[in-house]
Amino acid sequence: MKFLASIAALFLCFSTMNSLAGGSKNPLHLVIIGDSTVCNYPVNSPKRGWGQFIQGYFDDGVKVINLARSGRSTKTFIKEGLWKKALAEKPDVVLIQFGHNDSHDPSRPEATDANTDYRTNLCIYIDETRAAGAMPVLVTPMVRRTFDKSGKMEDPLQRYADAMKEVGAEKKVPVIDLHGSSKAIVEPMGEKESMEKMACDPKDHTHFNEAGAKMMAELVMKELPAACPVLKSHLKK
Length: 237
Known about the structure:
This protein has helices at residues 2-23, 74-79, 82-88, 117-131, 158-171, 178-198, 210-227, and strands spanning 28-34, 62-66, 93-97, 135-139, 175-176. It is α/β, with parallel strands linked by helices. A five-stranded parallel β-sheet has the order 2-1-3-4-5. Strand 4, helix 5 and strand 5 form a beta-alpha-beta unit. The radius of gyration is 17 Å and the shape is globular.
């Protein structure tokens, strides 16, 4: 069943990309939506999001529009009108990464449940992206650099990553598993080394310095060209 779902997703991907390649504007608009791990930061900030480094991988045939916003979840990005602004950019491809703020305590307004409204909100993004003639690509939320006293990695975002992958399979949407690839890097490092190499602050286990954000961007870009074949011809050599 997983094989058939993958074939179906690939077919839909090629159908959408053929449509884009046949009649889309130049440059292609690659819109990124997400939270503080993705968004742009001022030059004087110690923080960096992976979204601000994606443009550097492409030539002038792709325009990256990073609309990710700090503190937002799948719920609040829609509620505050940010998703409407993203659609107004007339995207060709939309990268969607949420989960960190969705996973907050249920009492907080941005929180969602991985098994209910988180999935529902992802489906809204997917359906409305497609209705706009664009291609959605889901990006699972990368891990936090948190470890327990025994040195074992804590992973509260796993259930959100799993939920996103399940939605991707159901809706036949490509999924970039940034959660899995980031875990493969962070877990072997352990807390001390991962914090030294990737954190923007000695006490911040979530956000990134420039090196860390570039690591995440590289992980995204390892999978993005396969997810969206039309982008391959615009990659810088």
